[in-house]
Amino acid sequence: MAISTSEILTILNDHDIKPDDDLSAQEFPDVGEIMEGESVYTTSISEVLGDDDEGQNSIINLDDHRIQDWWSGIERIIKNNPEDRPRPLSRERGANSPEPHCAWYCPIHFFGHGWGIYIREGCILSQSREIASFVRWRDVALPPALIARQLLRSAFYSLFLHEQFHHKVESLGFRLLITTNSDRYRNYKKNVYRRTYLSPDCLEESLANAESFRRLGEPRYVQRVDKAIRDGLKEYLRYSMPTQPPGYAEGVNYLSSERYKDGLYRLQSQMLDGAIRPTSASKHWSVAPNMITALTDITDDIYVVLPRGAKPVFRTTSIDPGATVSTSGLVSALTKHHGYEHVEGGKGSHVKLKKPGSQTIIIPGNKPVLSPGIVKHALNAIGGYPISRVRDLLEGKLSQIA
């Protein structure tokens, strides 16, 4: 049974870890942000890897110029791709500079209700084009709609698996918090991860890349993607990984089972000791083989970021991609329509709102677009409403609608 966000936050609070208060004092070079002009929707792995029913989830017929341009590019790749071997990436090897913050993981230790996996839809489109360059199209006998879906699935899945690994690492932090009664995760992030970020010693990013490659053999992916496209994805990752920034590039060193296991054990010792070069014997972790496993079912609510007004590529689960709100918009709605008052006590730029007899709401300050988790928290605090009711919250209509 998966643990809930509220339960996790209660445990953190009991150990004097207050995510919302700590956020403004931290630097997160690896974490992106939803920007003005962008929107967000939620999807799930079950939706992305769902059944290919005839007429369902059409991709190439969407009335969206982004998808039309993307599919035209895919058609050119299929037509021009040599039959004897996949084409390499158009850029020079070693010159890869990934699009900024294509995907990121916001840890609950720091982001509270705003935690989760975020993936930019534009990066899914661009990465799927590159994957297509590595597919032996002479071996693919699928209709265009299925080709489109499977390429998009492949790009989504590889990005998701990388970010899910970061959640697994944080899950190790929770387990160490309970067993040692001390905050090992934030200490590790400060003294190990951030000090090694964008260097060859950033083991967490190396293993996250390796994990995204190694898990492509999972049944739920294999059953939904043609073998030739799966092979193309693997070749793309194998070729592109070394072109990525230091730390990420070293993922190729951990593709084998033995090297990957050794890397996991060393990472676990790094967190336990809070040191880049730990003294705790890595080999001792062999008696605790499942320390880095997901604490929550993070496959259900994955946040996909896209240009405002664009149609989602994947089926949504619980949020209208047009229903986003800024810090000022949410604060205004809560104070104008729902009886909350702005009080002192929010650290940094955070806004602290209180209402007698109701749950206190803390909102990150000066955000053009708040994360869905923060909006969900506010809706829950004022009456347990689902995130689909955000428009009613902003317009003061919640009490008028059953």
In short:
The chain has 402 residues and is an alpha+beta fold.
Describe this structure in words.
By secondary structure, the chain is α+β, with helices and mostly antiparallel strands. It has 15 helices and 7 strands. It has 2 domains: 283 residues, no CATH class; 78 residues, Metal Transport, Frataxin, Chain A (2-Layer Sandwich), CATH 3.30.920. The strands form 2 sheets. It has a 4-stranded mixed sheet with strand order 1-4-3-2. A 3-stranded antiparallel sheet has the order 5-6-7. A hairpin with a 7-residue loop joins strand 5 and strand 6. Helix 6 crosses helix 7, helix 7 packs across helix 9 and helix 9 packs antiparallel against helix 12. The longest helix has 37 residues. The protein is globular. About 2% of the residues have low confidence.
List the helices and strands and how they pair.
Elements: H1 5-14, H2 19-22, E1 38-43, H3 45-48, H4 65-80, E2 103-106, H5 108-111, E3 116-120, H6 121-132, H7 144-180, H8 184-196, H9 203-214, H10 219-222, H11 227-240, H12 257-273, E4 302-307, H13 327-337, E5 341-343, E6 351-354, E7 361-363, H14 372-381, H15 390-395
Parallel strand pairs: 3-4
Antiparallel strand pairs: 1-4, 2-3, 5-6, 6-7
Helix pairs in contact: 4-6, 6-7, 7-9, 8-12, 9-12
